[in-house]
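Final report, results section. Input specification for complex C-07:
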Amino acid sequence: MTTAIWWIRRDLRLSDNQSLHSALSQADTVIPVYILDPHLLERNASRRHQFLFRNLQILSERLEKMGCPLVLRQGKPIVELSRLKEECGASIITAEADFSSYARQRDQEVKSELNLELVNGLLIYPPGAAVKADGTPYTVFTPFYNTWLALPLPNDPLPIPDHLPAYPPLSSEALPPSNEIDGFPAGEEQAQRRLDDFLQFSVGDYHNQRDRVDLDGTSLLSPYLRFGLLSPRSAYAQMRPFLDNPQTHDGASKWLNELVWREFYFNIMAAFPFVLHGAFREAMRDIPWRSSPQDLHAWQSGHTGYPLVDAGMRQLAQTGWMHNRARMITASFLTKDLLINWQEGEAWFMQQLLDGDPASNNGGWQWTAGTGTDAAPYFRVFNPVTQSRKFDPQGEYIRTWLPELAAVPDAFIHEPWKMPSELQVKAGVQIGRDYPAPIVDHGFARQRALAAYKK
DNA sequence: TGAACATTGTT
DNA sequence: ACAATGTTC
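Structure output:
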């Protein structure tokens, strides 16, 4: 008679759960446990906490129905796990491996005292699977991608276990109350539904619609991948027929490319943990950033005077999600136009994003700032107006998130400060009063950024 | 997974 | 004029 603890962290699902599967294959009794870790909960990320609690609620209900309720504990993981082990006599703990410095330190500590088995699942292939011939990690995406694609296909996803053994009663904390997040219904069934919708309706056009901020061309899966409501292996397996179908190949392939960016940045974080604290490239550690709380606040609150930038920032603040193209444009604006340290943006995004993940978020910011691996050349400065015309041609995205500009004619929607005053009256918006004039001139700012980066 | 600006070639 | 192309940051 053996007992295993299934320590749930970022794998809030029953389907394709390698940690759960390993626990079941080694023990007669499996105790599902989630530990509310004060170190993680103290972080200012209430939207992700809401989503986490809501998902725990749903998982807990499913486990309850299967006669194997979730045990919820609160405290330092090593302490809580040791206590739980004494209570239930478990001989093994299984968990899905995670790769941030905190996660690795936490797990190392647990491993040194308890029998912890870490399994793959957060990624399709564990960090280190796709490396250069000499065994060192890739620091450029494209060769990483090519090697990644050439790896043997992963095993098929695991089914949901049809039966979980019951266990004697254990105490459990009450779940904090939580609400549904608008636009991202919780639970692994909703994650699967979201993927089904994407495969049925959008994947074939993904490659040519994904950059359009005014269309629903993206998969919207990021929050689900973030919390392991969908395993990337399962998503990849379900994508494969669409890769093989010539009608949908281009879109599916572009989507896979994005999924591999996620794998890439996890590899980078695992191999170079210092990226979470500063620039990957040494040469980029001395950029003379500006300090301007006022400009930072204008950016955070969506009041820079550049409509697309502001629309993105307000979408983020209001919903916890932002279109990927808008993420690049707003990030470029902070780092290049305002010349504010990308780490300020990284922190703000981590605070706001429902899908906020240290590896992907850090990778994205360093890419935009030109400080990272595979860096965009520092002289690549997005023009917020050009990008706006290109990716929101009718200004629909802008009008959605900036209602004060709703009546601005198409000809001025991307640069409303050029609107003659009689048109401002007609559109019911006075620039400088109802909507800000640009807080910085892009042409000037571009030159300033080029000079600052060149030093 | 840029864009500004100069140059060239076409009306 | 203005689009296509090349060069530069």
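The first strand of chain A starts at residue 3 and ends at 8. The mean pLDDT of chain A is 96. This concludes the modelling results for the funded period.
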